[in-house]
Amino acid sequence: MSGEDLASLLSKMEGADVRNRRVRNAAHKDANHDELASYWCSLGGTWEHTYQIAGALDGIAGFCGVDVRVEIKNLDAERGKAQAGRLTQAEQDTIQAWRGRTPAVWTCHADVERTRAELLGVAKALASARAPRYHWDAP
């Protein structure tokens, strides 16, 4: 199937908007990528690298049954340059077009911890909405 045929097929699918979507080329990891992904895992989360997939962000972080896409930025990557730590236009477009949970942007351990707290809150809310409360549960 040619790229044009695939684009035509996807555009016919409900909600597909391939004409206006900019796709970036597969990128290299930021220098702090492995550090932040490892830190996430040390906090009990799971991590799947996706930075090598064109059009994807850097990874998917999972915790307590809840996932979030993540873009990792290195604030020290280009010291003195205006673009250090900023999202590229393609990354901004990807985040804007995403119809699921808003992707997180990590630059430091505090960002990772904030994402963990957010996902834990979502997981608790989902669990309380799904599970019936029994008389032996604490109020």
Report on this structure.
By secondary structure, this protein is α+β, with helices and mostly antiparallel strands. It has a single domain, classed as Trna Endonuclease, Chain: A, domain 1 (3-Layer(aba) Sandwich). 37% of the residues lie in helices and 14% in strands. The protein has helices at residues 3-12, 33-42, 89-97, 109-130; strands at residues 46-49, 59-63, 66-72, 104-106. The chain has a 4-stranded mixed sheet with strand order 1-2-3-4, with helices on one face. The protein starts with a helix and ends in a 9-residue tail after the last helix. Residues 12-24 have low confidence and may be disordered.
Topology (SSEs and partners):
Layout: H1 3-12, H2 33-42, E1 46-49, E2 59-63, E3 66-72, H3 89-97, E4 104-106, H4 109-130
Parallel strand pairs: 3-4
Antiparallel strand pairs: 1-2, 2-3
